[in-house]
């Protein structure tokens, strides 16, 4: 059996941990720069607030219904997610973290325990330990476990918090209920194509001949077809290091000032180097880009990018920032109003497998102890407490997050204060 554990309305639930007054009230979470709705409480869904809707389009609904609005606090969500996974590992050895709010679990060789009770205990441990409600679906395949999870979320009042698809009868019943567009991985293109052919439910899809599915969708579609029929095609995935790491921002105000751009590029490079060190990798190439506001046709337009190679693979924020600034100077042109910039790191190698040049100074090893101290201090004291002198110290580059909640679990300066009454 495979299981899928999913935090219900996860971003909203994470915000409610420290705001119990918002339970049973409409809450939404906004995307980067407070643009679109990316999470909704059940109460917000009942008001007709859709996923992905621009916030400005529903400002009247928000005001009239006293909807609480939060800017995305990804540091908080990531920390709560890690805590969920750590609890889950106490109940299942083999786990694949699929997303910030979802994890697959492999329950093969767990034949001698009652999986329903076991998963309910897992759910209760997370709920009473973190105040995050979860739903768990179990089935013979990963794809069917996603279906089981959808079912238990939809019918939680009747089914509780765990649902198991463990027979052909249950598979057929589930697929006759599931819309074809809700199949994991079906995609909009295939959904539209099959809908035009009269296929409405997942059950209609599995009735198609295997040869036809493979012809239309390739091996990927065939595997999906077999997974839905209860034939396992996918094991748990082993996480792989990212092949590219980037940071970019759209500025609140346009600028033609090279010094301002340098501060922001240095800040982006620093952020990228942090992510690089987190996965114990070094990069060989740095790409920097700048662009004007393409939505302002009355202004002169210009965009450019450049990729440069490092003398030696590195994860040093000092070295990466220095080369990023050199790259910026190569593409910067005055008298243009720049609206966006970014940094991308590519061509990674493991930190332990670096090949260095005999003729160039290796700054990576020289800076490594300093980087370790900076990472520890920023983790302990909060992000951006220690920076490079070339960075944007005022954080004018940061995203528009007017409704950002405190980082209660990761920043020592934002911990909740409890008053003791004698």
Shape: globular
In CATH terms, what is the architecture of the largest domain? Answer: 2-Layer Sandwich
Helical residue percent band: 25-40%
Taking strands numbered 1, 2, ... along the chain, how are they ordered across the largest sheet? 5-6-1-7-8
Q: Given this structure, which CATH class of the largest domain is correct? A: Alpha Beta
Rg from alpha-carbon coordinates: 25 Å
Describe this structure in words.
The chain is of the alpha+beta class. It has three domains: 2-164, Alpha-Beta Plaits; 168-228, DNA polymerase, domain 1, CATH 1.10.150; 244-381, Dna Ligase, domain 1, CATH 3.30.1490.100. The protein is built from 14 helices and twelve strands. It has helices at residues 10-17, 42-46, 59-64, 74-88, 115-130, 142-154, 156-159, 168-177, 187-196, 202-206, 210-228, 258-278, 317-331, 363-381, and strands at residues 2-7, 27-30, 37-40, 68-71, 95-99, 102-106, 134-139, 162-164, 244-255, 281-292, 303-314, 338-350. The strands form three sheets. A five-stranded mixed beta sheet has the order 5-6-1-7-8. The chain has a four-stranded antiparallel beta sheet with strand order 9-12-10-11. Helix 12 packs antiparallel against helix 13. The protein is globular, with a radius of gyration of 25 Å. Keywords: DNA damage, DNA repair, SOS mutagenesis, SOS response. InterPro entries: DNA/RNA_pol_sf, DNA_pol_Y-fam_lit_finger_sf, DNA_pol_Y-fam_little_finger, DNA_polymerase-Y, DUF4113, Rev_trsase/Diguanyl_cyclase, UmuC.
